[in-house]
């Protein structure tokens, strides 16, 4: 039998002795079992956070945005900070599912499903902030360009804030479609092995009547590939457009051309950190260590150290340009009020968490250490939150007119709103972890015979074979099979 | 949509499936479909299926999005309600690029997913016959249509000789119908028979 062949030097992506049925069993059985005590505790805490968030937002809608501590000088505070932070977190999911698909990175199969789910939930959380920041939230639909009786008065298509509306909503829709189209075959797997009537009914509806027909798989593959191709520039465009919200303005500290790549790198950096936080817990609780291996974590830590360093370079470039450009306002923003001044502490938290600490990942031992990875993932997310806070608030609180200089600290409804989005995020994630296949079952099966540990071990004898002998065996079996992936290989399993 | 007879065989390994597909086709039997738990590269070619044109559809949807965005925005800014925004041009192409790009992606993605669902006849409450419950788990299930010329017994022993397992005959609806997976199959033809009896 010809199979795609992968060198045994490469770490296996699925540990242990598995066949296809065992893969199904391992990934689907947590859906069929009653959730553990920890799940209930976590779920209830999330619901409570969500409840408090809803209360805080209701308070804000009832009394107006005045209950937030924003003022004439600092017009964007925690709300926009949180918006940018959540959108950024979402980026890792699309990066894993789309960009790594185009680069044919096999390791994405273990983590893509959960990462995409994270993207969708993070974008849902992000969207809340600009919507409620509008104040009269019942008028939020005014941002949509539709023929209306007010003129018609159209939205300003030149405005980066409107570009954001299009970018975020497109991003959400496309991510959802990509995620769900991947879920359909896995829902069918749950459906066909369901023992209870309710489960058969619900997963039957969710699986859209999927059968696994060869023609359908062929179209499914084509669909995934094109959606990945579309999502790749999309994900880069989304944070680029978010950075335009700042970069197209004339505020010192915002008005820089470096923003798009700097924001995209930061987004991937924080997103991967969040994926690590979630998956370290998921693999432990759902006992999926053989699918989300240390190798997966190491791969993601490499991305973290790369993007963290890109972000670090951006910080230094900004500092250099603030001096080199010779604009006094730019210089003052960076050297007097960002790196120093009343909010200077936030700048140094950002620098420490984003640039200094991730450098531990240059060491292989650290990249492969679960505890270090977990702690680092949280540090990175704190750092990235402060990056957004620093960019937004330290540019605003000292403006051109010293008489309007101000300070900013959030009020309780702002903090409550942020906590509420954590509630929303984790409520969704807990439901996902319980009712959805958290790993793409079909995709794992498709890499099992190339990257599964037990199958790789079987390859040893071919690697030790002399080239002539291997060549002879090659012609002997060459009677069928077109391998679309180039890596030709031949092995009897 | 028709109820047909099938001879169904399961295979547990791709290594057995590929030669089997080839032998069944050479022997002149009509393979209705092969159901697999995951995409198997090359199986579509082995079955003689043509390449899908879904990409082309995606491209057409994409340029529809591009055109929609550009034409709508320029219509609004130039003829429906021309506004002087700080003396800026009425057709600022660079400023239109983000929205044009987003709509291109949106139209293409939504259009392709809908087309995919339409072509594969996938929707909530759509039900299709499942030949073997493990075809979405670990078995590769081949369904061969029984025609007037088919000698079923011969076919069965032929399938067994090329590595097929759990070979059986099934009478099933070949298309889809509205239904629930927690209820038993009701074939269209059976229903008609019931109506006649009543």
From TrEMBL, chain A:
Membrane topology recorded in Swiss-Prot or TrEMBL: Multi-pass membrane protein
Coiled-coil regions listed: none
Keywords in alphabetical order: Cell membrane, Membrane, Transmembrane, Transmembrane helix
Domain of life per record: Bacteria
Transmembrane domains' residue ranges: 38-63, 83-103, 115-141, 161-183, 222-242, 262-282, 303-325, 345-363, 370-397, 417-436
Subcellular location: Cell membrane
Xref: InterPro entries: NrfD-like
Primary subcellular site in the record, as a coarse category: membrane
One of the record's GO cellular component terms: plasma membrane
Annotated family: Belongs to the NrfD family.
PANTHER family referenced in this protein's UniProt entry, alphabetically: POLYSULPHIDE REDUCTASE NRFD (PTHR43044:SF2), PTHR43044
Name recorded for this polypeptide: Quinol:cytochrome c oxidoreductase quinone-binding subunit 1
Organism in which the protein naturally occurs: Chitinophaga filiformis (Myxococcus filiformis)
From TrEMBL, chain B:
UniProt signal peptide: none
Membrane-crossing residue ranges in chain numbering: 59-77, 97-119
Source lineage: Bacteria, Pseudomonadati, Bacteroidota, Chitinophagia, Chitinophagales
InterPro entries: ActD
One Pfam family this sequence matches: ActD
Keywords tagged on the record: Membrane, Transmembrane, Transmembrane helix
Superkingdom of origin organism: Bacteria
Name of the featured protein: Quinol:cytochrome c oxidoreductase membrane protein
